[in-house]
Design goal:
Elements lengths: L14 E6 L2 E4 L3 H14 L6 E4 L14 E4 L8 H11 L6 H20 L6 E2 L5 E2 L1 H6 L11 H7 L8 E5 L2 H20 L5 E2 L2 E8 L7 E8 L4 E6 L2 E4 L29 H9 L3 E2 L8 E3 L7 H6 L4 E2 L6 H12 L9 H13 L5 E3 L1 H16 L1 H22 L1 H9 L9 E5 L13 E2 L27 E3 L11 H22 L11 H18 L23 H15 L8 E2 L1 H17 L8 H26 L10 E2 L7 H4 L1 E8 L4 E8 L6
Parallel strand pairs: 1-11, 2-3, 2-12, 3-8, 12-19, 20-21
Antiparallel strand pairs: 4-7, 5-6, 9-10, 10-11, 13-18, 13-22, 14-17, 15-16, 16-17, 22-23
Helix pairs in contact: 1-6, 1-14, 2-3, 3-14, 7-18, 9-10, 11-12, 12-13, 15-18, 16-17, 16-18, 17-18
The structure holds ligand SFD.
């Protein structure tokens, strides 16, 4: 089919707004809010302008939108070196230890700020039992920042695991966003700009500098509420637009379709943005397959770690105990302390052998805790404590995955009476949770033993000058979670301001022509308006996503095609996460055709235009993931994915980073191995 261009003959031309700033922060999630908070402190006294652009409303945008019930990264009395070792074990031996250490030494300060800003953090009461954040406040427990040393802080926080602290976190994101918005307001007044916080503006692509090679100069996007396009120019840019969800077909179907574990609105924009700018990526073969409560994707962390519940198969056996030896036999050196992917792997072995379903034994865990309470506190107080605990179990869902509470209620499940089913979900691409897919960034430069070439001057800058990264998009340093993403945003924000101050003569000049960008952005609109009356379907209204037309494809169908390809060829749930060279090559052929058909995506309204562009971004994230799995000739992450043609872990040849770069000018991909260096033993 001939490629169409948008001449605005059928759809209305949008208003174009140009906005020049010094530091441009893309995204409004945890990393972005951290970056704003920190950057404003350094930028404002120098008269530098800071701008944030979020596709959604920052109060509830990103992965923490629904809230969380634990902060997963808090050092407290733990050693930062031990954090590095834990992350290394979980991510199968290959991480950038300089980045992880750097994060560990800074993260607690972000947690202390959250508490100061109003986040209720659980504390231990005088009787040794846990107090909710507000109870702790009433009981006169001090803020963590007011405690002199880490050992004392450690005594006070309520740990669900070694690194996690419990919170009452329904409003977590709103609290963190408020601090960022206040900082922006302060910078706005000090620098005299009209606006520096853009919400509901979807960034579509990077803009490179016209005069300096490998230098970012701006970004372009459109309003998802008004007929407006925004062209941003900046001296440094932070990409913090999160990970990629709905790249693979989800387990949810029919009326549950759209439900996913990570937020469906994180659609791979962060990956697309950096790779189109030419930034080097690392470990993009990695993914995260969360084992979660079936259908509602409810969190399991608190159940495993705080309530000490066990997940057992239908025979009443713990798959980790039963198949632990098999893991050590098949993957020598990795079976003793199993990372998240291997814990998935043992459950998968059990399920494939017909021993499913796997169920979380919520009832026996609560029973055991109740007995403990009664023994220590007597029947009456013990029963009261148990009731409170039961409320916590529900709150764990209500704080961050409300749909799971709905699932339990709708399925008549009483967690104190019966167990609940778990299932490994579809894969997600991210670099802040138990995954490490993302960009190759410069390190802090002061960690002993780190190769010189890992630090090219500005901490968290990508291989593109002026383009910084934080949160999910940073590769090889997972397990940052919410607090770590915020802290990493702060690190990147501070360094971006240093970069701007060191390059004061730089003036951004855009390589692209604005008219062409606007036409490209609105093409799906033009296509829809031009062809909407040619539809072959009389069943659905013209706006219905199921509409069939010989001239266009609607974003809903396009997304389903992508998810089906990835599911069947690149190791999704359809194949129990198994793929191979030949399957990926076949999948890549189909992705190519899908990408070509992307030129025929059609949008009936601004919301669908957003959906179209989310799909463009997802397809590129998907292709990068597939190409990386193809490049790495081993199964590094059993339980996340398996290469059937290379089923083993091959430390001799593949205990290394796998880095790639896409050249947008030539359309070529380059791949290379980068040696892994262990810094902490
Ligand atoms: O239960 C564009 N996370 C957990 N972290 C914890 O500390 N504790 C937990 O309990 C954790 N768990 C958990 C977690 C997340 C979710 C969804 C669940 C459970 C159900 C992880 C953290 O939330 C995560 O690590 C951080 O939020 C990552 O931060 P960051 O900044 O990298 O991503 P973001 O917060 O999702 O923000 C992304 C932003 O980008 C915007 N955006 N803006 C403009 N244009 C575009 N094209 C854009 N595309 C995206 C988004 O709107 C958003 O503002 S548990 O599993 O362990």
């Amino acid at each position: 089919m001939e490629k169409e261009t948008c001449t605005f003959s059928y759809c209305e031309r949008p208003e174009v707004i140009e906005h020049e700033t010094d530091f441009l922060i893309l995204g409004g999630g945890m990393a972005a809010c951290g970056a704003v908070y920190e950057a404003v402190r350094w930028a404002t006294p120098k008269g530098l302008r800071v701008t944030m652009v979020d596709k959604a409303a920052t109060d509830r945008s990103g992965a923490v939108a629904q809230g969380l019930s634990a902060i997963n990264t808090y050092m407290g009395g733990n050693k930062v070196e031990d954090y590095v070792k834990y992350v290394r074990t979980d991510l199968m031996g290959i991480i950038r230890e300089d980045l992880v250490f750097d994060l560990g030494r800074h993260v607690d300060n972000s947690v202390h700020l959250f508490e100061e800003w109003g986040l209720p953090i659980w504390k231990k009461g005088d009787d040794g039992f846990s107090l909710d954040g507000h109870q702790a406040k009433d009981a006169g427990k001090p803020f963590l920042k007011n405690i002199a040393d880490n050992a004392e802080r450690e005594k006070l926080v309520v740990r669900s695991g070694k690194w996690q602290v419990m919170i009452n976190g329904e409003s977590y994101k709103a609290i963190v966003a408020e601090a960022a918005k206040k900082a922006l307001e302060y910078n706005k007044k000090a620098t005299g700009v009209d606006q520096n916080h853009f919400e509901r503006v979807f960034i579509i692509k990077p803009l490179m500098d016209a005069n300096t090679p490998n230098r970012i100069a701006g970004a372009v996007g459109f309003s998802v509420r008004e007929n407006k396009v925004y062209v941003f120019k900046a001296k440094a840019i932070l990409d913090s637009m999160g990970g990629a969800v709905n790249v693979f077909r989800p387990r949810s179907s029919g009326e549950g379709m759209g439900r996913a574990w990570f937020p469906v609105w994180n659609s791979g924009s962060g990956y697309y943005f950096g790779l189109q700018a030419g930034a080097e990526m690392t470990l993009m073969e990695n993914r995260f397959v969360p084992m979660r409560f079936k259908d509602g994707y409810g969190p399991v962390g608190a159940w495993f770690l705080f309530f000490k519940a066990k997940a057992l198969n239908a025979m009443g056996e713990d798959p980790a105990e039963k198949y632990g030896d098999a893991v050590e036999r098949d993957y020598p050196g990795y079976g003793k302390a199993m990372g998240t992917c291997l814990r998935n792997h043992v459950s998968m072995i059990s399920m494939r052998l017909g021993e499913g379903p796997i169920k979380m034994q919520t009832h026996t865990a609560m029973d055991a805790m109740g007995k403990g309470f009664k023994e220590k506190l007597g029947d009456k107080v013990g029963a009261k404590k148990l009731k409170h605990l039961e409320a916590e179990a529900w709150e764990d869902f209500l704080d961050m995955t409300i749909a799971q509470a709905g699932m339990w209620a709708a399925s008549d499940i009483e967690p104190d009476k019966e167990p609940s089913e778990l299932l490994p979900s579809e894969p997600y691409l991210l670099g802040s949770h138990a995954g490490c897919a993302g960009f190759w960034v410069s390190g802090p430069g002061d960690i002993q033993g780190a190769p010189k070439e890992w630090s090219w001057g500005y901490n968290r800058m990508s291989t593109v000058n002026g383009l910084f990264m934080a949160g999910d998009v940073v590769g090889a340093s997972g397990h940052k979670f919410s607090s770590g993403s915020h802290a990493e945003g702060r690190i990147a924000g501070k360094n971006a301001i240093a970069f701007i101050l060191d390059n004061t003569n730089y003036k951004p000049a855009l390589k692209n022509k604005v008219d062409e960008l606007v036409a490209e952005m609105y093409l799906p609109y033009e296509i829809y308006e031009k062809y909407k009356n040619y539809t072959t379907s009389g069943t659905f209204s013209p706006n219905d996503p199921r509409n069939i037309s010989p001239h266009y494809i609607k974003p809903d169908m396009y997304q389903k095609r992508l998810m089906k390809i990835m599911d069947e060829y690149v190791g999704g749930i359809a194949t129990w996460y198994v793929t191979s060279k030949t399957m990926i090559e076949e999948g890549l052929k189909k992705l190519k055709v899908l990408e070509e058909d992307g030129a025929r995506l059609a949008a009936a309204n601004l919301h669908e235009l957003l959906r179209c562009w989310e799909n463009y971004h997802r397809v590129w994230a998907a292709e990068t993931h597939a190409r990386h799995i193809l490049f790495r000739q081993e199964s590094r992450y059993p339980g996340y994915y398996y290469r059937a043609d290379f089923p083993k872990i091959d430390d001799k040849d593949w205990k290394c980073f796998t880095n790639s770069r896409y050249n947008a000018e030539t359309g070529q991909w380059e791949f290379k191995k980068v040696p892994y260096v262990q810094l902490f033993s």
